[in-house]
């Protein structure tokens, strides 16, 4: 039983606030509006001008956006000479005034622009979309990365873990949130509302998402969990349409089988680690018999890595995958052991230049302090699973007391902690 | 009727989250913990170390706090040489890497420390209290102002207007919020719960507060409003215990008769202006007959200013106030006109060095775009009202279309816009 | 902005209460359990026994249910002799004791049984389903109608208008409620979630439902509303997939185009009238320009009535409908005028034995005080619309001041109030 | 973490609904209005007429109310002849029609009147107040008891346990609820808001209340609970202002030290038993170490019973109480053993004519299945505690598995189950 509803009400106001759309936009070029907003006509005009900027931005085409980003990058940059002078002044006399001058000089003007835009109700989501546009231009125009640094800096402050809100997502959740879960699921596609229902509704299924109070309609990241009585060895078993739900009170194992980041515009602002930890904590408190927290994860870099090998084994596997994609999994069944042995190699011995594992999912979970617990062949026979990972899936195990030392040793030198059964594959 | 409760639920999680208290603190000096937190042992250890820092800080005595602030100010400062070098490098080659280096160098390390502390649930309120402690030391140790700059910078980002939530406070509000309203009321003291009830419960009374989602138990600023059928000329009339509530549907005037900032630790982060504007907007939408939005405000700087005058009039007023404080308001009644004329002088002709009015409340409302509408003598006969303002109160009028031009002209050159009746006093 | 969340929280407890399922059922025949429950072993055992009864009932097959209903009807009936004796005693000495004896005697024992079952959390919904089962048996076993009287009597008390809660249903509503809207829509079928979205999400569409606090997962009745700038003359226009939403602020007309009762087990407990009135009131308060409240209603009894006519016109219409059902609406277009004239006859001149209109939808809206405003041909070309109503739809108009007199004159003698344009059809 | 907020929202609508006040009342005598309401002018006029009746009733003086109750009792009674005839008809031919006729005849017309009044928003609370007025007249006019039977019958249906909502009351609860807790506390007076805070705010204190969705502003019954590490032997210890809260996680004992019914108008509709059981269930689920659920209860009938004794012991006790009331508790200290022995007599051997204990609190808890666990002298030294119970308090223990057999044996023959230490007092 909750203690009070007052706190829940707070957010309703956010939701009910009139958004910035619909404001009549002052009829001035975007750049002029930006200068006006920074020019200190104060908060009153500020709200109006800010709304005009966001309106105008929204109506830009791709060329217009590129011009705007160039403007942010070059015209709204800091003045390196001024920084140098301010740094000298501060070195000579370290006081609040010289420090303030230095802080002002060292911050690109676009940062304050973004901060002022963010004062508008609903602006946070608009700025996240703006960064999504920006990220799409970085390859073509790397100089925009300088502007991206400022977005990333501010978002990291605004989307501070302390401000995020964890919510359970289930079949009683609002439809407009659920349709986003369908859209954002990045690992194992959700086909339609019936498929979604199967993932959310059974008593032995859970889904959790982080939200930010200023973007209550948008999940930031979500995780899908299956409560089971054993560590699963394939996604087919987890998602089977005919399976019988188990008695949740007897579940021993929570399987994190899908983690999806929802907001491209929040790239690099990491939520997944916090989400897993919070969910582990909450599920532990709710279900006393849970003792094992484990993922069932894809191996997205495997096939590409395999393609770089020249061994007959690698070739055999490649052919088996091709056959499986064409509908015949017979060959694949014959190379199970080979595949698992190759995968052990892939995770434990093959490294990037920086000494970290090649697999991005591995880097994520090992970086969080999990261990590589088991490797399963023919564990994801979907086209995507075959193409990227040759049907392989793995379990990363989050083992309470060992998470911190694992994390630290991985952070230090990229050491991959694996279970003895995985280690044994190397010697197999 | 609201559309959905999902959004209100988001906050409940914030509220229900285990706070950082009660964490077992690692047994290490505070400075070591701070270095550890910045040292990148990652988010896992980070939460534990952060909790230890906040725990340890809470247990410090005054000396300990000063040592900690000195540590933040000196040891966690930026390195001016590094900034200079980075600025030079960026001038020569403006790219993301050189910019990132410069940004890192130019930010005192304490900023990142505060940001990481803020990841803990409940930490925002703890940091606001920490700054309250810091502010109390600034007079004795001005160098700490450098640290305060970083607090102010971060708070201004975290307490961005776009993140704030407006809530009506009334007699159905939670008691623990209401006891804070009693405690924080800074203008016209609330004596007890019965007094509070008289301010909140009648249909023609309103109270609104801003909250931040990460501090849902703490109002940031609140305003008390009386709905009336005329602009009031004394606080006695507004707060009278026997008055009859009016029919709200017929109210023409919303009187903002008390605005209180609640968090000393958020000094300089301005909420009052936004609050007034939002409340004007909301009340307008709710009550169609409302057309006048006006304050009934104290004149806190008047008596001090008067004390600096040497005219016989000033002396007579001074004596009348002394008598009134002793319980005899007869003399005060005789100097009504004098007082109002002097007040017109005080507001319109006497200025600070920067050309702004002496009165802080005047600077606030005129800066927001209000005009000085009327001056009332014997309008606040409480001891505080007599001591600070010789019993004077004034109305500042927020007049929709004129707010923006008023604000801009005041922002430009400190021009005080007053009604013709106030202007006339000067010529009286 | 709402005043408080406390009240909303109340319901959460209902929702969170452990339901009666899962209770270990005492191993006794259903009839014994019922006697035990009435036997006054008090509330403690009562909850356990009640749960056992509901569990046991749920597991019955059709035969078992019929035996149980027979038991309720015969064994749990009142004793007419006892009533007679008690009535005599009360006539002789009218006091509380004799009255209590009479009241006890005159109430079939099954009423108290149902009341005690209803003490269990979640039992109300179970009893509504039980009555649904019962209603299905009435035709085969009319004696069960006596038991149904007691269900109806209690439900009418429990589902008292004063206990119902109106909720807006929109795209932010919980999915498990929305899937029931899809399932329960009885007038214009909702094909899938996309179709539902088109009905709920556009700004100019509304949906409202009544709920009972003890069955928060089950809508009782809901109405779908289109906000328009004119009275619509066909459902195709209202539900068109390509239509552009209109500016809600400018909407003049609220069109109730579908009203569906959701709970078969609540048959005869009327909610529709209250729902329409409450929605009219709420929409009026929200949208100031709304001045016309009108339905777009089917004419479900028309085709059957038409089949009883022998005129050449009737025959021509019949053939046109057959052609339209086969995909060719050409003929139908030619009999528009005929159809509308026949419909005027159907509504205004043809009556049931009790003097009321033949059409059930007409009886509902005219009984609520609406007038028959307009008749449209080719207004519903769906198979259902053609089969039941020959493509006809009509508008019933709810005209504020005239609702009460309309209602009373209809209640008195079945007088059908129609607009002059409908009246004119008769003379056409 | 809760699953959804939709359900909580349902109630908000109840709260937001315009109440029946303010409706313009038709200008007709109250009796005429009642006949109109029953006369079937339908729901539309019904709401208006119902509001007029409640308005008119509210404005009645005491004489007017008595006339109205006499009207309900006599004019709105049933017709015994009609009942007799209907019973005969039903005996001869048991069908739905004859049963309906009998049911209609056997129900006093005032029942349907009350049911129709209850359709108005807010009417439930008004009807509860009406019954409160009625109860106050019963002694003077016993015939009104016949009307009271109908109120009681309907309330027992409307306030069915299945419709009630349990809410925790704490320092974050709405002030307007808390002021009612202060007002309604019937056992140990709450002096002011500070006193209330001491009862609600500490982590080792709890308070729970039942609410009905149709009266969300009014608690029906509430219980105050202290979480302790031992069974307390005096209220002074429980309510001491200086006590240190204990660590709730280590609490072994939940002490129900005050249970108050709030609504006089709901007399005879028992909530206390359900409340205790629900709270035991909820606290058990929350706090795993709780194993003892016990009351600390007053002994309100003791002093009066003692006054009827003529033994020297009884006299000595009487004098000690008189001295204690005058401020000197020395004598009382000397009769501790005597008092406890007498109390054992009072509870275990002295009975009412119906064989039940004299003490009403004992009848309540023993009837719920508790046992008399311990008797404490000088356990409530407040004036009320001394006057009613000579300073005695007792613990009733709710012992999970034994509650049901205890309840049944008490229900059967009034057997008082006591602990061996209490039994021993008899032999002392």
UniProtKB/TrEMBL annotation, chains A, B, C, D:
InterPro entries on file: Malonyl_CoA_deC, Malonyl_CoA_deC_C, Malonyl_CoA_deC_C_sf, MCD_N, MCD_N_sf
Name used for this protein in its record: Malonyl-CoA decarboxylase
Domain Malonyl-CoA decarboxylase C-terminal, residue spans: 162-399
Gene3D superfamilies reported in the protein's UniProt record: Malonyl-CoA decarboxylase, catalytic domain (3.40.630.150), Malonyl-CoA decarboxylase, oligemerization domain (1.20.140.90)
GO biological process, one term: fatty acid biosynthetic process
Domain spans labelled Malonyl-CoA decarboxylase N-terminal: 79-159
Pfam family for this entry, one: MCD
Record-level Gene Ontology MF annotations: malonyl-CoA decarboxylase activity
PANTHER family with a match to the protein in the record: MALONYL-COA DECARBOXYLASE, MITOCHONDRIAL, PTHR28641
């Amino acid at each position: 039983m909750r203690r009070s509803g007052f706190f829940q009400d707070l957010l309703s106001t956010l939701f009910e606030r009139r958004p910035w759309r619909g404001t009549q936009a002052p009829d001035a070029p975007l750049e002029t509006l930006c200068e006006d907003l920074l020019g200190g006509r104060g908060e009153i005009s500020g709200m109006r001008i800010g709304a005009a900027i966001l309106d105008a931005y929204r109506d830009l085409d791709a060329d217009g956006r590129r011009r705007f980003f160039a403007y942010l990058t070059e015209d709204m940059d800091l003045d390196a000479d001024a920084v140098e002078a301010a740094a000298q002044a501060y070195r000579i006399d370290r006081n609040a005034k010289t420090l303030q001058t230095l802080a002002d000089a060292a911050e690109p003007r676009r940062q304050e622009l973004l901060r002022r835009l963010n004062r508008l109700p609903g602006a946070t989501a608009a700025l996240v979309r703006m960064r999504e546009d920006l990220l799409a231009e970085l390859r073509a125009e790397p100089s925009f990365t300088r502007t991206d640094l400022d977005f990333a800096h501010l978002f990291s402050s605004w989307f501070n873990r302390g401000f995020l809100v964890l919510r359970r997502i289930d079949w009683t959740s609002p439809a407009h949130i659920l349709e986003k879960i369908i859209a954002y699921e990045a690992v194992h596609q959700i086909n339609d509302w019936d498929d979604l229902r199967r993932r959310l509704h059974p008593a032995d299924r859970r889904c959790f998402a982080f939200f930010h109070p200023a973007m209550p309609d948008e999940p930031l990241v979500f995780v899908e969990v299956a409560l089971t009585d054993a560590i699963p060895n394939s996604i087919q078993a987890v998602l089977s349409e005919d399976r019988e739900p188990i008695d949740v009170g007897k579940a021993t194992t929570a399987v994190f089988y899908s983690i999806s980041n929802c907001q491209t515009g929040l790239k690099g602002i990491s939520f997944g680690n916090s989400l897993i930890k919070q969910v582990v904590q909450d599920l532990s408190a709710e279900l006393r018999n849970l003792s094992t927290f484990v993922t069932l994860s894809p191996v997205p870099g495997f096939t590409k890595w395999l393609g770089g090998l020249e061994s007959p084994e690698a070739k055999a596997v490649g052919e088996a995958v091709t056959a499986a994609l064409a509908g015949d999994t017979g060959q694949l069944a014959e190379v199970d052991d080979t595949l698992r042995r190759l995968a052990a190699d892939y995770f434990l011995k093959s490294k990037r230049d920086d000494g970290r594992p090649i697999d991005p999912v591995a880097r994520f979970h090992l970086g969080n302090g999990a261990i590589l617990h088991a490797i399963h062949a023919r564990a994801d026979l979907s086209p995507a699973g075959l193409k990227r990972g040759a049907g392989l899936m793995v379990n990363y195990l989050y083992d309470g007391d060992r998470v911190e030392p694992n994390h630290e040793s991985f952070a230090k030198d990229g050491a991959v902690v694996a279970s003895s059964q995985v280690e044994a594959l190397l010697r197999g």
